[in-house]
Write a structure and sequence with these properties.
- There is one protein chain.
- This protein is of the alpha/beta class.
- The strands form three sheets. The chain has a six-stranded antiparallel beta sheet. The protein has a six-stranded mixed beta sheet with strand order 8-12-13-3-14-15, sandwiched between helices.
- β12, α12 and β13 form a beta-alpha-beta unit.
- α6 packs antiparallel against α7 and α6 packs antiparallel against α9.
- It is rod-shaped, with a radius of gyration of 72 Å.
Length: 640
């Protein structure tokens, strides 16, 4: 912040004249004031301090040390009092000090009534007091600041106020209150942000707890939805498991049927082959039997022929030699025939033996073929019965599969599974038990959770923003405090040499110093002073005498003059408790200071006689004549 822009008002003004009507001891008085030093002198009780009181209440003071009620300032026996200040409002650099007044003079009056009503008039028009106060604050004219207007007894009062109050008065007088206000503003903002952060954090904590609760409910709802979806999937799987199981049964039956049919076809083929073998064996056996019978008959015929030959031979042998001789040729013929027949018999027997063997083998084969045929026929019958049974099972399976059609329509896309239905049902029961364990979950759980999540995120974002603002404000606060410390230290560094210089003229030493600048609430200003070779000690009501305190405070006040903003400053009884030598020294310091600030109005009130050698001093003498105060100018500035 630019110090110059704060400490110097843009346009200054001065009081040209004041008018008192029925105000305390004045019935009517017009008192002109000039730039530079105005001294009001006169005996005690003449009405000197009344002039400063009147100026103060017009500038906005609510009450004075002499009267807590403004109505007590009305002249005895009167109902209304008025104090008026006339200000110079001529343009400076094309602008008037009081912009809403278009005249070269601005007249401001404050009316006081016995009934307790008070009001302001600006150029004979009523004006709000807050506007008046703002107007004079812009000029730095605060009648409640004793460094600007130091009423009677305030010199003593300044010595006993705390270092903190002293510092605040100085800040306001020199126009530094803006630095304090900026710090207070930053502190207030920081307190607000801390409070807001705490509030947001509490709300965030509460929202987090609520969110945690609803998150658990929401997660349960998700889990429940997942379990329900799983249960539905399991139900679908159970349906498809039944379908697949039934399909597998049917496929298995069809495969079994195929094998049976293949076996049946093979058996039928084998039966046909066996029948053919039986037929062939039978036919061959029949032929063999016929041949065997033929051979038997042939053998019988041959044996019969042999027998006949044998009988013939026997008969012939009973005859004599002659007959034998006659028959020898015949017998010889029989023997030849017999030999042939025997050969044939032997051959026939061999063939018959062979045929019997073949016939026996063929018979065995025939029997075996017939047995095989019977067995195959039996197996054929069993297989046919099995085929019919399997076909029945297939029809029953297809019927059951068809009965599952309504379930299949609801089961959705096919799910391939090889699990048993019992396993799936067991898992469905477990899943259903898990669903039941979750209890009743509000349908709006997701919406409520999302709402609280949004609130939580907003609060979290707000907390981050507030935290960041708090950090920035804390940095800004420290920066403002640093600026405040710097400007105050710079001010004291400029004031202290002047204070020491003024004290040196009366044989004293001292310092102006700051304390506790680490904390604005404890920060204060201390004056130290030492007289007659004593070490400087803190100025207070117990260490120094009244005169020493007055000298020290006036030295400090004079050293501060070049920094005070207000174009009007006043001190009542600036020389209280001073001896003549010190009074003269302080007065010279006053005159010297005022010469350096010719555009400032100073009003000094003293009951003492002052020998004025300076032509630029405006002296007003106040006297009381028959209970009424009168003010008279005894000399003025030399005209420029």
């Amino acid at each position: 912040m630019n110090v110059q822009s704060i400490t110097e008002p843009k346009i200054s003004t001065k009081i040209e004249e004041m008018i008192l009507e029925n105000f305390m001891s004045y019935e009517y008085a017009r008192i002109p004031l000039k730039s530079g030093l105005n001294i009001i002198c006169g005996p005690n009780g003449a009405g000197k301090s009344t002039i400063l009181i009147a100026i103060s209440i017009v500038l906005g003071q609510a009450y004075t040390e002499r009267s807590r009620k403004l109505s007590d300032l009305i002249r005895h026996g009167k109902d209304v009092a008025r104090a008026t200040l006339i200000f110079d409002n001529r343009p400076r650099n094309g602008r008037r000090p009081i912009p809403f007044c278009k005249s070269d003079t601005f007249m401001l009056s404050r009316y006081l009534r016995k009934d307790g009503s008070y009001w302001y008039e600006a150029d004979y028009r009523e004006i709000d007091k807050s506007r008046v106060i703002r107007l004079f604050r812009d000029f730095g004219m605060n009648p409640d600041n004793m460094l600007i207007i130091m009423h009677q007894n305030m010199v003593e009062e300044f010595s006993v106020i705390s270092p903190q109050e002293k510092l605040k008065m100085i800040e306001e007088a020199v126009g530094f209150q803006e630095y304090r206000m900026r710090i207070l503003e930053a502190e207030s903002k920081l307190v607000g942000l801390i409070s807001e952060e705490e509030s947001v954090l509490r709300a965030l904590e509460s929202a987090e707890q609520t969110l945690s609760y609803w998150k658990e409910i929401y997660e349960k709802s998700l889990l429940k939805a997942e379990l329900i979806a799983k249960k539905n999937l399991l139900k679908r799987e159970a349906i498809w498991a039944q379908v697949i199981r039934q399909e597998k049964i049917i496929d298995s039956l069809k495969e079994k049927l195929k094998k049976k049919e293949d076996t049946l076809e093979n058996i039928i083929s084998r039966i046909e082959q066996t029948k053919d073998s039986v037929k062939k064996s039978y036919e061959k056996l029949t032929l063999q039997q016929l041949e065997q019978r033929r051979l038997y008959y042939s053998l019988l015929d041959l044996e019969k022929a042999i027998t006949e030959i044998q009988v013939t031979e026997k008969v012939l042998s009973q005859f004599g030699i002659n007959p034998i001789e006659r028959l020898a040729e015949r017998i010889k013929g029989f023997e030849e025939d017999k030999q042939k027949i025997e050969d044939r018999i032997s051959k026939t027997q061999i063939e018959l033996g062979k045929l019997e063997k073949e016939s026996s083998s063929n018979l065995e084969k025939y029997v075996n073929n017939r047995v095989d045929e019977a067995i195959l026929s039996f197996r054929k019958k069993n297989i046919e019965d099995g085929i019919n049974h399997i076909k029945g099972e297939i029809r029953e399976g297809e019927k059951k599969l068809h009965e599952l059609s309504p379930l299949i329509e609801r089961a959705g896309a096919r799910i391939e599974t090889d699990r048993y239905l019992s396993d799936i049902d067991a898992e469905i029961k477990i899943t259903d038990a898990h669903i039941q364990s979750l209890g009743n979950i509000p349908e709006e759980a997701e919406d409520v959770y999302n709402t609280y999540l949004k609130t939580y995120n907003e609060l979290k974002e707000r907390a981050e923003i507030v935290s960041e603002n708090r950090k920035r404000t804390l940095v800004e606060l420290e920066e403002r405090k640093e600026v405040w410390r710097d400007v105050l230290q710079k001010l004291i560094d400029e004031v202290n040499p002047s204070y020491q210089s003024i004290l040196s003229k009366i044989g004293a030493i001292g310092n102006v110093r700051l304390k506790g600048l680490e904390d604005m609430e404890t920060a204060g200003l201390e004056l130290t002073v030492g007289f007659r070779g004593a070490n400087p000690s803190i100025l207070n009501a117990y260490t120094q005498s009244g005169g020493e305190r007055t000298i020290s405070i006036m030295a400090f006040l004079l050293s501060l003059q070049q920094h005070i903003m207000s174009p009007f400053r006043a001190v009542d009884e600036f020389d209280v408790h001073m001896d003549p030598r010190n009074r003269e020294a302080i007065f010279k310091a006053i005159v010297s200071t005022i010469k350096e600030k010719k555009d400032i109005q100073y009003l000094m009130i003293t009951p003492s006689q002052i020998t004025v050698t300076e032509k630029d001093v405006h002296i007003i003498v106040v006297q009381s004549v028959q209970g009424e105060s009168e003010a008279k100018v005894v000399n003025e500035f030399a005209k420029k």
